Automatic annotation (TrEMBL):
Pfam families: Hyccin
Compartments, as annotated in UniProt: Cell membrane; Cytoplasm, Cytosol
Gene: FAM126A
Annotated protein name in UniProt: Family with sequence similarity 126 member A
Organism in which the protein naturally occurs: Amphiprion ocellaris
Keyword Repeat: no
Length: 375
């Protein structure tokens, strides 16, 4: 088995001898090497393997090449790399994770700058409740009164900015989860390209990080490290984002277990952001049928779209509603005197109409016939 791992690793190292024109072809051919990915997972999971350092170095060369397929090839191992780093850090044996730290810091430092080497500022648009998005339909929310404040904010989009991020040369207790959260953000941006093995690794990472050192670890009979790992709310939110995608793309069992474990940890830590996002996803899954057999087809996030219907709130105040309310009120407030006056006015109107018709027939019989014929 070790010879097979060495052989697959040597195939990866052939990338260094390729010309620039052949990089795209080489990147596309990696998918056909079925034994390569399991061999690399085996090397990463063995922290004391002699092949770990050359593999991490080669994965960084893949990412630094700028070829999107090679970058996604490296990102698929990110959940396993994160767990290796966190487990070694919890065991207080940093000497065995030096190459993994270098790889993760290298990816982070590459992603926080643009092509010119300037710090990037990422922007995210928060959906407006008045406009439909992939997560909601305005008609499903219910009627909302058109108050002055709602009209003032109608159609306005809120933009949230992230960055610029500082370059990091080493991991510390203060910046560890800042870097790891940003790396998970990069991973989630490429979720549609991740394999089933990578999604399974993400779910396993989420469960292990959240239950280690807590009573649930004994219930799950997980025999890994028993040290509690420090997490942040932002890190859990990024984990939930990936779990949501895994749930909708075939990993129902692992994804459901991972989501429960993350919510379990968020409740213990009292993280409102993680609880809000996690419970919202969990509630939406009860009313939606998960695509449990969608491991090979097109990947997507399943969202229930409600039919759009035009509804006007009872509390909405418009010029039309005011006019209709006024005439309705006047119609209800009638007296016998007003009713008699209304009947007499109707009779006079009918009589005038008959007189006008007879007069026009007498003076203009030909014109009247033409007009009837034209009709």
């Amino acid at each position: 088995r070790l010879k097979s791992v060495v052989h697959q690793t040597n195939c990866v190292c052939m990338f260094q001898t390729l010309p620039d024109s052949a990089i795209s072809t080489y990147a596309a051919s990696l998918k056909d090497k079925g034994a390569l990915v399991p061999a690399l997972y085996k090397v990463i999971r063995e922290n004391y393997s002699d092949l770990l350092e050359p593999v991490c170095h080669q994965l960084f060369e893949f990412y630094r090449s700028g070829e999107p397929q090679l970058q996604r090839f490296t990102l698929q191992f990110l959940p396993e790399l994160l767990w290796s780093l966190l487990s070694v850090s919890a065991a207080r044996d940093p000497h065995t994770s030096g190459c993994i730290e270098a790889l993760l810091l290298g990816i982070y430092n590459l992603e926080i700058v643009d092509k010119d080497g300037q710090s990037k500022v990422l922007s995210f648009t928060v959906p407006s409740l008045s406009k439909p998005s992939v997560y909601h339909e305005p008609s499903a929310i219910g009627s909302m009164a058109l108050t002055e404040g709602a009209l003032a904010n109608h159609g306005l989009s809120r933009v949230v900015y992230s960055g610029p991020h500082l370059q990091r040369e080493t991991f510390t207790a203060q910046n560890r989860f800042e870097v790891l959260t940003f790396l998970l953000l990069c991973y989630n941006a490429a979720l549609s390209y991740m394999t089933s093995t990578s999604l399974q690794s993400l779910c396993q990472l989420s469960s292990r990080v959240c239950i280690c050192g807590y009573p649930r670890q004994q219930m799950r009979r997980y025999k890994g490290i028993s040290t509690r790992l420090t997490v942040t709310s932002e890190f859990l939110v990024q984990l939930i984002t990936g779990i949501h995608y895994a749930l909708c793309n075939g990993e129902v069992e692992l994804g459901s277990k991972a989501l429960d474990d993350v919510l379990y940890r968020a409740q213990l830590e009292l993280f409102p952001e993680a609880l809000l996002v996690g419970n919202a996803i969990k509630s939406s899954l009860h009313s939606a049928a998960l695509k449990s057999n969608n491991k090979e087809g097109a990947r997507s996030i399943q969202v229930e779209i409600t039919p759009t219907s035009s509804r006007i709130s009872r509390n909405a105040v418009t010029s039309l509603s005011i006019r209709g309310h006024r005439w309705k009120r006047h119609g209800e407030m009638h007296t016998p005197e007003k009713s008699n006056l209304r009947c007499s006015r109707k009779a006079v109107g009918d009589q005038l109409a008959e007189t006008r018709e007879e007069f026009s027939h007498t003076l203009y019989p030909k014109a009247r016939r033409l007009s009837v014929f034209s009709l």
